[in-house]
TrEMBL record:
Membrane spanning stretches: 176-197
InterPro entries: PLipase_A2_dom_sf
Descriptive protein name: Phospholipase A2-like protein
Biological source species: Nocardia alba
Keywords: Membrane, Transmembrane, Transmembrane helix
A molecular-function term among this protein's GO annotations: phospholipase A2 activity
Biological process annotations from GO: arachidonate secretion; phospholipid metabolic process
Superkingdom of origin organism: Bacteria
Length: 208
């Protein structure tokens, strides 16, 4: 999941420089993917599989990256798996446009992220128990917050994996500030979520 907690380097790839022309095929594919269009498969760029080493497949009604997953520092509900894989595919389509020097505008990454948010929250609503749905919803909020933080750091350009501990020179210090900001953001959401879950648990006990 690109719902994945992956650090992204601003400006390294996809930055803020506006493209004169967006890749038409990639733009059409993104719109189809986020709208759950049945035409999504046919709209994936023809050379996508060659460039990325896989062909998208259908899972639970979504076109996904079969090798994708929900990369996260916390364990996420299994119901999120298909949504995470679809999110990974969406991010790869953004990277495709970047590779052919016709990057998509910020609308594309926002749309892919919004689709993830919608799908994981919808997955939670399929649970039978009210408390279980609430707990799942909290995890969905945490997952989306992690994705949103990274997208904002990246300024909604093409996603780039960043190793915050990498050094180009022995004298350099690793840049931990991006990681720190993400951890602090996740900590705040997790703390708030714990309060909500505790309140729900106490409320539930009143009627047991």
């Amino acid at each position: 999941m690109a719902a994945a907690v992956v650090m992204s380097a601003p400006g390294a790839m996809g930055g803020t420089t506006p493209a004169t022309t967006e890749n038409v095929a990639a733009a059409a594919a993104v719109r189809a993917l986020v709208d759950d269009s049945p035409d999504a498969t046919s709209l994936i760029p023809r050379d996508f599989g060659y460039k990325f080493g896989y062909d998208p497949v259908q899972v639970d009604g979504l076109l996904v990256n079969p090798n994708g997953d929900c990369s996260s520092p916390v364990t996420l509900p299994p119901e999120f798996e298909s949504a995470c894989k679809a999110h990974d595919l969406g991010y790869d389509v953004l990277r495709y446009a970047e590779r052919v020097d016709e990057p998509l505008g910020g609308w594309a990454r926002r749309s892919v992220d919004a689709a993830l948010n919608r799908r994981i929250h919808a997955a939670c609503q399929l649970r039978d128990d009210e408390f279980s749905r609430a707990r799942c919803g909290v995890m969905a909020d945490i997952a989306f917050t992690a994705v949103d933080v990274n997208s904002r750091r990246q300024e909604y350009g093409a996603p780039v994996v960043e190793n915050v501990f990498a050094r180009t020179d022995p004298a350099d210090r690793p840049n931990l500030w991006p990681l720190a900001r993400t951890v602090l953001g996740l900590f705040a959401v997790t703390a708030a979520s714990a309060v909500i879950i505790d309140a729900l648990r106490k409320f539930r006990r009143r009627f047991v």
